[in-house]
Amino acid sequence: MSEHISAVTDASFEQDVKSASRSQPVLVDFWAEWCGPCRMIAPILDQVAAENVGKLKIVKLNVDENPQTPASLGIRGIPTLILFKDGQPAATQVGAVHKAQLTAFVTPHLNNVA
Question: Where exactly are the transmembrane stretches of this chain (predicted)?
Answer without folding.
Answer: none
